[in-house]
Amino acid sequence: MMIWQIHQGITEDPGATLPNGAKEVPFSKLLFHCGLNEIVDQISYKAGRWLSNKAYWKARSIESNPQAMRLLERVKGIIDKRKKTSTVIAVMAPWYEDETLAKGEGYIRRIKEIDTSVFGDHLCIYLYECPYYKVNRIVVDQLDENRIYIRYNTEFKEQREFIQHTIDSCDYCYSHSVLRVIPVTDPDDDGKWIDIFDTNTTHVLDIHGAVVEEARFTGKDEKTIKYLKAAEKYYFRRVKYAVSLTEKMERYFNGQYDRNDIVFFRTPVISSDIFNRGNWIEKPVSERTVVYCGGSQGWQNVPLMVHFIRKHLTEANYVVYISDPESFIIQWGDSLPKNVIVKTAETSEIIETYQKAHYGLIFRDSNVLNEVACPTKIMEYIQFGLVPIVKTDKIGDFHELQLNVITVEEDYLPENTRSKYATENQRIFHQLNKEGKQAIKSLATLLNGR
Fold first, then answer.
1. CA 395, 397, 399, 403 torsion: positive or negative?
2. Most buried residue, 85, 102, 117, 373, by CB count within 10 Å?
3. Homologous superfamily, domain 272-435
4. Rounded-to-integer distance, Cα 259 and Cα 246, Å
5. Left (φ > 0), alpha (ψ -120 to 50) or beta: where does 321 sit?
6. pLDDT-derived band of residue 275, with 50, 70 and 90 as boundaries?
7. Which secondary structure element, helix H or strand E, spans residue 236, and what is its range?
8. Closest CA to 192 of 137, 152, 242, 149
């Protein structure tokens, strides 16, 4: 729950509040429902929002805005006080409890995992250019004594400078993906890139994935791909430390940018909310259950999933936990049979299904995007004794680790063979989990050292 201890923002969010926390009131209701002081506050709020949209205000520097300077000094005061006793980290990412975000997305889950397992009680300043509504002035929310959430808009020069000054005050800047430095507004328009490296701060990049390849795969335009390339190059030419998912990811980016001096921390995606629920190898032998748990993006190959389930329809029960159930149902084309369940679900239900399931579907293609990845669903599948059914086994480091899988062209295994595969796969899970925990510990040690 957000605590509005520092709130100087003016937004166009429908649920926007004034700096004092009051809800905005339409002009038509001001005279009849508000007292004089509230009318003054409401009109000042509306006038400030209107002025913020004018070109003059977008171009001015932070030194010419006393309100922004006071807010910056307040934030820096909190930072300077904490730096006397502990590390302060600027985090280029949305706050993972932001109500406008999908909590189940792998990106958000990764942010939460790093926050809870690495950052601990350090003061973290989350910095996010929010694309969901227009932020006309800096919005600073102190969530608690250890977390501050700042949303900003790079259209405004003073806000870009605010972010740069804030990062410069911190010991570390931890960026969740190269995407975080690309402005939501057009970077070619009046140079809206934020130069986060023009500071004395030590930088850590959590790579997350091959964003340029993902953009190509999803059909992004050349202008977007150009920005992604520029952002990737911007980071890899300057960053000192990087957090990767796989060894293949490290080799790929070292080859792209000739940066063998970067210190990597390899941390496979393991969700603590699922990991702490234990491991299940023994399965019911009476009914075979096959699961998919993930998104509906193009690289998930939903049409192939539909084809596979239709082909093997009478051989198992199928449970498809997908972010957009309608996309699967449209691909299916007619009424779903009783043994095919398609829905979204809470973690507790997913775990219950994992505990009784025998196989997990993951139909990734053989390309750079997947060859450097460590999909959360594979880690979850092998933790709970599900044998992956794949289109290709060249995903992340799993091929080199000799993960046991079956392909879409193969039939289901005899149960004793499947159980043997599952047991061997779980050893791989525990190996990666052990290596990941050590990397997390080393990363936490780095941040503690200042």
1. negative
2. 373
3. Glycogen Phosphorylase B; (3.40.50.2000)
4. 16
5. beta
6. low
7. helix 222-236
8. 152
Contacts of 270 (CB under 8 A, 6+ apart): 113, 379, 383, 432, 433, 436
**446 φ, ψ (degrees, to nearest 5):** -60, -50
- Cα angle value 166/169/172 (rounded, 5°): 95
pLDDT tens for residues 333-391?
989 999 999 999 988 899 999 999 999 999 998 888 888 988 888 999 999 999 999 99
How confident is the model over 234-252, as pLDDT tens digits? 999 999 999 999 999 999 9
Q: How far apart are CA 372 and CA 212, in angstroms?
A: 13
The count of other CB atoms within 10 Å of the CB of residue 196 is: 22
Taking CA atoms, 398 is separated from 251, 337, 382, in Å, by: 15, 34, 11
| Cβ partners under 8 Å of residue 200, min gap 6 | 168
Cα separation, 192 vs 184, whole angstroms: 9
Q: 113 with 271: CB under 8 angstroms?
A: yes
CA distance 247 to 402: 15
Domain ranges of the chain: 27-239, 272-435
Residue 449: other Cβ atoms inside 10 A: 9
Task: Cite the beta strand spans of 145-262 per DSSP E.
Answer: 147-152, 172-176, 202-206, 241-244
Could you count the other beta carbons within 10 Å of the beta carbon of residue 43? 13
The pair of structure tokens assigned to 429 is 């899970």
295 Cβ contact partners less than 8 Å away, ≥ 6 residues apart: 105, 322, 323, 324
Q: Are the beta carbons of 9 and 138 closer than 8 angstroms?
A: yes
In angstroms, rounded to a whole number, what is the distance separating the alpha carbons of residues 25 and 13?
Answer: 13
Whether 421 contacts 404, CB under 8 Å: yes
Retrieve residue 402's tokens.
């000799």
